[in-house]
Structure formats: C-alpha cells, structure tokens
Amino acid sequence: MFITFEGCEGVGKSTQLNFLKEYLNRTGQEAVFVREPGGTSIGEQIRKVILNPNNTEMAPVTESMLYASSRVQLIDQVILPALRAGKIVVCDRYLDSSIAYQGYARGLGADLVKKVNYYAVENCMPDVTIFLDLCPAESFRATPGNDRMEQENREFHNKVYEGYKAEIAISNGRIVPIKPSFDKNVTKNLIIDALRQRGAIK
Length: 202
Ligand code: TYD
What we know:
Strand order of the largest sheet: 2-3-1-4-5
CATH topology: Rossmann fold
Bound molecules: thymidine-5'-diphosphate
Largest sheet: 5 strands, parallel
Number of domains: 1
C-alpha cells in the first residue's frame, strides 16, 4: 500500500507522520517513510537547489522538473522496491504537491504538471492520500519559514489550497480530506481510522 500525506505549510503534517510511524511500529506493520523533495542522495541534492532562497531566478517549469526528477529517483530507488517487498510506503508530499504548488500557485496549470510527471508516476500512484485540510489563514504556523517556497506570500499559499481542493474533487475518493483538530490525538485517530477503513493499514 502506498500512502501519501499532503497539505499547506504548517498544518501539522510532520507530527501526524510521526504518530502514524509510532502506530505502525506498535502494531508490527512494516513501513518505509520518505519525504519529498528528497529521500535519496540525489533527491536531497535536488532539494537543496529547489529550496535555496537565493535561487530567485528559477523558472516555474525548471522548478516543476526538478521536483519530478527528485520523485523519479525516489520511486526507482525506494518506493517501488519497498512496495514490491510488500511493505507499506508513506510519503510526505508527492504528485499532488506539484499540482497544487507548481500547477495552481505558480500558474503552470494542472495539465502541464501532470505531463511533466507522467513518466515518473505512471506506475506509481498512491492508493490513499491524506490531505490535512487547513487553509493558510487557519494554519498552526505563526511565522513563515526560511526556504524558497515558504517565503512565498499568502496569495500564493491560498492558491495552493485552492489547487488541492480542485484535485480532491476529481480524485475519485483517493484524496481524503481530514480537518486537523487542536487536539493532535483527535487528528491522529481520524487519520488512522480513515486509513484502516480503506484497507491501507491494519
Ligand atoms: P518541506 O520543508 O519538506 O515542507 P513541508 O514541511 O511543508 O512539507 O519543503 C517542501 C516544500 O516544497 C513545500 O513548500 C512544498 C513544496 N513542494 C512543491 O512545491 N512541489 C512539490 O512537488 C513538492 C513535493 C513540494
């Protein structure tokens, strides 16, 4: 089973990924956790180029292709081998991030981003995607971070959120929106229940 996590900045994704890791460990379910961009040696080098705040001149198509390149490397080296070995794979961000950030917020359009990613993901689509459903105005993070994407303005991040909403509507139930609660344990249980109901975890 291939599970991905998505959401805008500062919605508590890392905390929830840690909770899921603990749960899978405790219940004896073998899982591999990875993140995007990165997760491989080459991918981490690409990550540095993408997120470096000095790279202000980066063209949106370059950005999209760099994310896709990091993704191909991760699929080849980590995701497919783990899935073939019968393990659960949990990825922090994946194709839906590219559609929301590069497609909607950068303005490349969802279709172009899907084309750029076609060779990467054609045989490797998530079974379930958990979307932590908080808009930028509701996010738990008070101050923006330092990387190139986090430094984009509120309008950019609102478009990211709208992009996700549009993708949810056409995802045939693959993307499951979950409204984070201030009580992290409540959110954790919502996520675990959603994944169990869909047969992604036990
Ligand atoms: P990261 O520090 O991992 O962010 P977060 O903790 O919010 O997941 O940085 C990844 C950044 O890259 C984040 O701002 C989202 C963005 N991103 C894209 O724009 N396109 C993509 O395809 C992916 C995977 C991430």
